[in-house]
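Study this:
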Amino acid sequence: MKRNEAATADVATTDASRDTPRKPCVRDRIFDTACDLFYKQGIRGVGVDAIANEAGTNKMSFYRSFSSKDELVAEYLRDSERDFWLWWDGVMAAHEGNPRAQCEALFAASPCDTNMRGCPMANAAVEIREEDHPALMVVRVHKTEIRARFRALAHQMQAHDPDVLGDGLMLLMSGSVQSRLIFPCDGGPAVNAGAAARSLLDAHLKKCV
């Protein structure tokens, strides 16, 4: 084969390989499967065998990829946390400089679909009992940050009692998300979370006038 023909063939092969979707590695399959099962069935309801079988692998491959189920749970929650803050920061950026609009947008933009099973962090907190569980620290840090951010928004709005308002907003968001475990998106109390948030903001901000 001539040099330019060989080069052309190499380029074609490279282009074809780029167009072909890469098969997920074993670790990725295990992780993606575990995330789905943990969210739908609960952390305690899913064992290593079930995760390995569903991922099309075995326990040996599982423990090559993750040191323990507890560590996998912690990673599952860290991944959920990253998604949450990407969503939060996107909402914030759309209303930069207007804390009230940012706050209202958080409730207006709260995602909801038929597959929602509440907040992964809150669900994990209910199931985890061991104080030294690596996932519990992930939950505590995440919820503490949400509380701090809502309080910061309340301070920016110059509320009469910003810490009370911030905590109230956090409770409202947490409650509306968890209510989706029981009620459908289009008919449960979560549909009124935005209106409730506006009423709460009005009540606290009027005291500043």
About this structure: The longest helix spans residues 69-94. The radius of gyration is 23 Å. DSSP finds ten helices and no strands in the chain. Residues 105 and 144 are 21 Å apart (CA to CA).
